[in-house]
């Protein structure tokens, strides 16, 4: 079941901006430091979100599209998601023993309690339910690889879906897989967090299961950055992300487009209850 969060296919060689037209402006172009600073400030200042995400992720050589409606709060962490196939997921920090409630939307139509970081919920997707939102985009600019961070540049303006947007683009031709020797107690998930490279790529490259415990000294292949090319669209009014596309040596890796974004408007706690009207848990 897909959750994330965000179409064009790499096989067709299309870019994130293919459907966008240039935006006319008499203002001086925004600088890279200002754009990055305002983007990060907007993400850091967001405590609640409602949005729709159109996601496209490459899984085992195929692109799996999914459109989902999301609402979340960060303090406390509460997440509700419903995808186009009718599947629903609800996670509330401190409840249900740390598991998410999941209504799969298919037979036998039973509500399940699943580990949001477990293999069942991460099957055929790049990110866990707990990674939903704009945190991934912020992490791209705060990675432990300084050369990758320095590769981002403000690249003009565009209009997407009627919204004027700034374009933040990274070109990182040094992207490649490198050998990594695991330390004691490390897992594929902890290595991905440490290197900010995404666990899915580690699993795919090394043919490992989700959150595999690594033996001390075990050598695995990991990417040295998040992507070879990255395009982030930043809403000119809110400075929140309107979309992100990431490419690697094989083409488009993942793409997320955000619409109907409503930030920092209180969401009643009842909307994060299993019994909220309209939910099928």
Automatic annotation (TrEMBL):
Tell me the keywords, alphabetical order.
Signal
May I ask which residue range the UniProt record assigns to the signal sequence? Answer: 1-23
* Residue span, LysM domain: 183-223
InterPro entries from the UniProt entry: DUF1571 (IPR011465), LysM (IPR018392), LysM_dom_sf (IPR036779)
One Pfam family cited in the UniProt record for this chain: DUF1571
> Origin, by domain of life?
Bacteria
Name under which the protein is recorded: DUF1571 domain-containing protein
Q: What is the lineage of its organism?
A: Bacteria, Pseudomonadati, Bacteroidota, Cytophagia, Cytophagales
